[in-house]
Amino acid sequence: MALRLARKLAAERRLELGYGVAVTVAPFSFADFKQAEAAAMRVAEAHRPPQEAALVEAIDDEDLPPETMDSVRGLFAQHLVVILLARHGRGWEGVEAEDGTAAPFTTAAIGELLDLFPGIALTLARDLLAPFEALVSEGNASAPSQGTGTPAG
């Protein structure tokens, strides 16, 4: 018998972000998550500052200063959340435009929200990605093959 962690990813999720803001996200698969990760890394690499891009080209990877990779990781994290919300987000509540009307749920508005409110960005990233991080830490992104046994113990 194989045991798996229970996950509620087959249904729409409502993520409460604090400050009266909530985001609704459609279900998405582990493959969708990994595709978004790859896209986020491509975008992060493409948006390196010019001086940093030149440094990366001039120096071997193992000789790069840590802050060079730190900036890419930060860009990656933000782009990952934006990409996942743009692809799988259904909408939000509690976000208003300057005139008091409901803010549109667009990629630009999502990016602006994450830039203006880092606390919301951290909560959103944590809650959006937690089920997939649990899946990865479990070490098995799919069900075991039929007929495979596990050692008794």
Care to describe what's here?
The chain has one domain (28-138). 52% of the residues lie in helices and 10% in strands. The protein has five helices and three strands, in the order E-E-H-H-H-E-H-H. The chain has a three-stranded antiparallel β-sheet. The relative contact order is 0.18. The mean pLDDT is 81.
Gap from first CA to last CA = 12 Å
Q: Helix- and strand-based class?
A: mainly alpha
Q: Which consecutive residue ranges, at least 5 long each, have pLDDT under 50?
A: none
Q: Write out the strand line-up for the largest beta sheet, numbering strands in chain order.
A: 1-2-3
Helix content: 40-55%
- How many beta-strand segments? 3
Mean pLDDT, nearest integer? 81
N-to-C SSE string, H for helix and E for strand: EEHHHEHH
- Tell the overall outline: globular
Rounded to an integer, what's the Rg over CA atoms? 19 Å
Strand content: 5-15%
Largest sheet: 3 strands, antiparallel
With helices defined by DSSP (H or I, 4 residues minimum), what is the helix count? 5
Q: How many independent structural domains?
A: 1
